[in-house]
């Protein structure tokens, strides 16, 4: 016979084993139900995630070969592989750089087509250009254009040239009146009061121009001596003149005339001014005339 104590221990052990089996089954059932869950860290769950990753990589490869819609079919924007996004960015960057590169290589037409500027040739001055300023007296007027005024002058000198366009015919005795070429006046508002000038006129008989010293003293005309103080100058002949505080000097060729200030005329630098040309005399210009005035 088996002692009762032994039987009791065996029965207790059997009961304990049965209880362990029941508890193990109860614990194993929840574990088996969670094997496919995303939060399971068991070895089987890790294996399942690895397989899913390989499948996603396959889908990414298909996306690179086909339309982008294939990548979207994997479920959600986050499933798009990073390699596809990176490739797209590289393609767009290359396109953006290619356009500026073509522009930078384009050479502006102004650089290609513009030829170097040629050196400006030096044109020698003509004989007429060295004569000075062309002075014009318009028909029916006394004054000349352009004028040549200056103030506080002590000397007026230079050259003069008459041409065939300077000739005129008044058809009366006023042909012998003296026109004014240039000079100095000491009464700026009344040029015929106190002045010292070079006079000129056209001689119809000799068809030459005549120059001579001419003075105004308190509105009295001091006319040149017709035999000793008049110089004849042909058309296109250039003469020299000088008007200062000592008198008037004129010169053409080998002939020179100097005439000092007459009594009663005293220079005054504070009122002295250079006078422009004047036609007449009594009569205005019968036609438009021109001549050359050179001021030094």
How would you explain this protein's 3D organization?
- This protein has helices spanning 4-33, 43-65, 68-72, 82-105, 109-113, and strands at residues 133-137, 150-151, 155-162, 179-185, 194-203, 208-217, 220-222, 231-233, 238-244, 247-252, 255-260, 273-275, 289-295.
- Helices cover 29% and strands 26% of the residues.
- It contains five helices and 13 strands.
- The strands form two sheets. Strands 2, 4, 5, 6, 7, 8 and 12 form a seven-stranded antiparallel sheet that branches.
- It is an alpha+beta fold and 296 residues long.
- It has a domain at 129-295: Jelly Rolls (Sandwich), CATH 2.60.120.
Compressed to H and E, one letter per element, the order equals HHHHHEEEEEEEEEEEEE
**Low-pLDDT regions:** 1-125
CA(first)-CA(last) distance: 167 Å
Largest sheet: 7 strands, antiparallel
Percent of sequence in beta strands? 25-35%
Supply Rg: 61 Å
Which structural class do the helices and strands define?
A: alpha+beta
- CATH-level-2 architecture of the domain at 129-295: Sandwich
Task: Determine the number of helices (DSSP H or I, runs of at least 4 residues).
Answer: 5
Please count the beta strands (DSSP E, at least 2 residues each).
13
Overall shape: it is globular
SSE arrangement:
Blueprint: H1 4-33, H2 43-65, H3 68-72, H4 82-105, H5 109-113, E1 133-137, E2 150-151, E3 155-162, E4 179-185, E5 194-203, E6 208-217, E7 220-222, E8 231-233, E9 238-244, E10 247-252, E11 255-260, E12 273-275, E13 289-295
Antiparallel strand pairs: 1-13, 2-12, 3-9, 3-13, 4-5, 4-12, 5-6, 6-7, 6-8, 9-10, 10-11
